[in-house]
Design goal:
The structure is a homodimer of 377-residue chains.
Chain A lengths: L4 E2 L9 H7 L9 H18 L5 E4 L3 H12 L5 E6 L2 H12 L4 E5 L8 H9 L4 E7 L1 E2 L4 E2 L2 H7 L6 E5 L11 H4 L3 E5 L11 E5 L1 H9 L9 H7 L11 H17 L1 H21 L13 E5 L6 H11 L2 E2 L11 E5 L6 H16 L7 H11 L3
Parallel strand pairs in A: 1-12, 3-4, 3-5, 5-8, 8-9
Antiparallel strand pairs in A: 2-10, 6-7, 9-10, 11-13
Helix pairs in contact in A: 1-10, 2-10, 3-4, 5-6, 11-14, 12-13, 13-14
Chain lengths: 377, 377
């Protein structure tokens, strides 16, 4: 009888229309039906990413698309700059390392954002640097990177800008073409309201040119094959058909609501949630918080793993806990995708109850009032 | 109002239970529920593959798992032997080529099977050969390879045997451990009755050891990360949760029916379908037909692409046509997965109607009678 609520920053809840699309009798991808759907999904993604460039759809987790950026665009002998301020920034470095690609790390304290001027300085310090690898929202800490400022600081430098936008493109403001981003990576399972299993990568013209000449070995992630297949909308390998069908439905909903309205809504939710948590006497982890996921620090007198387990098992509400060095120390609540104000109130309430179960009392009422007031209600 | 029938060799029809599992409200993978499901899926796959070794689950098409075999097991300076008798045999070669791995090709006429003794001879001719790459069922031609005979001929040679079993493991007899296969690759969307998007690879002990020492760069397909995650059933990257849920249901059905009963049923269907088509006066493409997909040659007096389009659009029945040099020349009907005798009769009937639409008459009744008689009915 327990109702379940999913409030983790990915996978996020999937709308009914998209769930039902996956439950349709199985159908084939070498058909006019799939080609039409593939084209419309791609066009929807262009709108979400704010680009007129090609978007390539890969059947993989978001990590696969991050690796695609590296293996298609960083030729032998070239280096990268990697901003590491959490688990996903570290992943950029791990991918480079796996291929023996030297990278200049910019390590920032978890929960802090990199300084755009410093990123540009390091990138320009070595002519072998081909790209800077950023994380738009570092999901592990709920921290936002000012991608536009990094792009501006790198104008005319010839250095490409890669953005892991897996957990915020489609939720927070992002303008690939206007800002001058060269590779944008998105995942299906966050702001795009689709189950995990599809990843997307959009390339600027200069990135597309670099892909064509890059000598590095790759096959399933070789974006040249995806590019070649686009004019006929005939994917190079058997695509995850049901996930495409779900993504098609979710993108329709996003288009109907409008991407700029989505950005505004996420911003409002992020701001109101942070204020509510602070009104409840809790501290935020991030000094540069992203609007799409809030990481709240747990008081010293509670067992953090127990808080997550209580929320999930007793309250029926699944948040995310902390990863790596933050394990047991934070709870993360998403504001992306198919999440409304009531979901966030559910999350705040379940968190308060989980803290109370360990005899740590917070003023939930003050949090709720603050939340609704900031939303103008 | 038109009812739809999917008779292509992948994706194949997905049972209702599996479709409904995907339509459940979205849920999270870092939970006891997912860990339990992940474990049970892995155990089900071990039964299907007939192995007690580790099976790694990758969110990708089957091609991703083929590439995983190459990048994890073929170290720098080593070579492979590739049997090329169709589009998927050629893919093994294309993957090697993408990484600059030299391979000794054994080219056989499309529709014919490689001679196991010849494969072993070539593999032993060069000490740099690390592995032989086979295709259990070459889906593009409906041709079966005698994997056991190849393994027997390579006993004690030190050469690994890789089997692309994407479209027949789980339908046709296959015994990884007994036969001595070193890497078995399977896809979710064929005999395993799940939508595309998950691929599986099982490694023998000596293959697992080769993986640990292989220096080749790889990340998303690095099986060491999957191996490391197994004891805790905590996948290295966000897995395609809905596809796992579907696979879990389909594997339960397979276990209930019994893998050996499935093998027998597929063998019966293959034999009866081939006899029926011949009774209808049509020729088979393959000289060594697989039981899991039948490729039938289309008469010279019809437009083959039109036959496929008529079956799909007018009759509501989706087969596969030919690929590459066989485009327009064959129709392929599957006998794998959630396919019963009535589905195959639907396929034969739709084919006869599509031929009749181009004024080529076949004796469908004779085909139907032959089909049922051979099934003992």
């Amino acid at each position: 009888m327990q109702k379940k609520y999913l409030l983790a920053p990915g996978p996020t809840p999937v709308p009914d229309q998209a769930l039902r699309a996956m439950a349709e009798p199985m159908w084939h991808h070498r058909t006019p039906r799939f080609r039409n759907l593939y084209k419309e999904v791609t066009e929807g993604l262009q709108e979400v990413i704010q680009t007129s460039q090609n978007v390539y759809c890969i059947g993989s987790s978001g990590t696969g698309a991050m690796e695609a950026a590296i293996v298609n665009l960083i030729d032998t002998g070239r280096k990268t700059v990697v901003v590491r301020g959490g688990k996903f920034g570290e992943r950029w470095g791990a991918i480079c390392q796996a291929y023996g690609i030297e990278f200049l790390p910019i390590d920032v304290t978890w929960g802090e954002a990199a300084d755009p001027a410093e990123v540009a300085r390091v990138a320009k310090s070595d002519p072998a640097v081909a790209a800077v690898c950023l994380t738009l929202c570092e999901t592990s800490t709920g921290t936002h990177t000012d991608v536009k400022a990094v792009c501006d600081a790198l104008t005319d430098s010839g250095v490409l800008v890669f953005v892991d936008g897996i957990s915020s493109v489609g939720a927070c403001e992002f303008r690939m073409d206007d800002w001058g981003v060269d590779a944008t990576i998105v995942g299906s399972q966050k702001a795009l309201m689709t189950p995990p299993g599809l990843a997307y990568i959009a390339l600027s013209q200069r990135a597309d040119a670099a892909m064509e000449t890059c000598c590095r070995g790759r096959f399933y992630l070789d974006l040249r094959a995806y590019k070649k297949s686009l004019p006929k909308w005939d994917p190079p390998y058997t695509p995850p058909v049901t996930l495409f069908a779900a993504q098609h439905e979710s993108l329709k909903m996003m288009r109907d609501f409008g991407i700029q309205n989505i950005w505004q809504r996420t911003a409002d939710f992020g701001k109101a949630t942070r204020a509510a948590l602070q009104a409840m006497g809790l501290a935020l982890l991030s000094k540069a918080p992203s609007d799409c996921v809030t990481a709240v620090c747990l008081p010293d007198d509670v067992d953090g793993n127990e808080v997550v387990a209580h929320m999930r098992d007793v309250q029926g509400v699944t948040p995310a806990g902390g990863q790596a060095q933050l394990k047991g120390k934070i709870v993360r609540l998403t504001h992306m995708g198919h999440i409304d104000k009531f979901d966030i109130l559910v999350g705040l309430t379940a968190l308060a109850q989980a803290l109370a179960a360990q005899n740590h009392t917070v003023d939930l009422g003050k949090g709720v009032n603050t939340f609704l007031k900031l939303l103008g209600e």
